[in-house]
Design goal:
alpha/beta, globular, five-stranded parallel sheet, disordered N terminus
């Protein structure tokens, strides 16, 4: 009669378990692939993430687009900001355009709050949300000025 040592059995069980786990976690290509025409880096077809210089050019080319600071608490703002709407209540605001296809430009300090606001807006049916990549941190690090006037929030 032949016996297999306990360490050999443990190694075999561990190898099989790890292999099964790896195969199960890999999933299929269909589950993780992007839909045709979409970019994996793009969160939604109805929102665009623009770096500071492109965001600035967009605002200059589209002066009637509402510019909204969604950062809370107030920490400064981009000149020309029309609204200060907290990111977590943006879809409840009466200050948003009623035309959900109209462009809306949003930003925050670092980009995380505006990313959440952009997702909420697109979920609410807005189809043209422009978000500042990197927020005010990126804006100022690329040489753009920020305004420090907390009274602007009250106006």
């Amino acid at each position: 009669m032949s016996f297999v040592s306990v360490p050999s059995v443990r190694r075999l069980v561990t190898t099989v378990a790890v292999g099964a786990f790896a195969v199960g976690c890999a999933g299929s290509d269909e589950a993780t692939s992007s839909s045709p025409g979409s970019s994996p880096a793009t969160s939604s077809a109805s929102s665009r993430l623009l770096p500071p210089d492109e965001f600035d050019a967009f605002l200059a080319d589209n002066p009637d687009v509402p510019l909204i600071n969604v950062h809370i608490p107030y920490e400064r703002h981009i000149d020309g900001t029309e609204e200060f709407i907290p990111f977590d209540t943006i879809t409840e605001s009466a200050d948003l355009p009623t035309d959900k296809s109209a462009p809306v430009a949003i930003y925050c300090r670092s980009g995380s709050m505006s990313a959440e606001a952009a997702a909420d807006l697109t979920d609410a049916g807005y189809t043209n949300v422009i978000d500042l990549e990197g927020g005010m941190n990126a804006w100022s690090s690329t040489g753009h000025d920020l305004v420090d006037d907390a009274t602007a929030v009250e106006n």
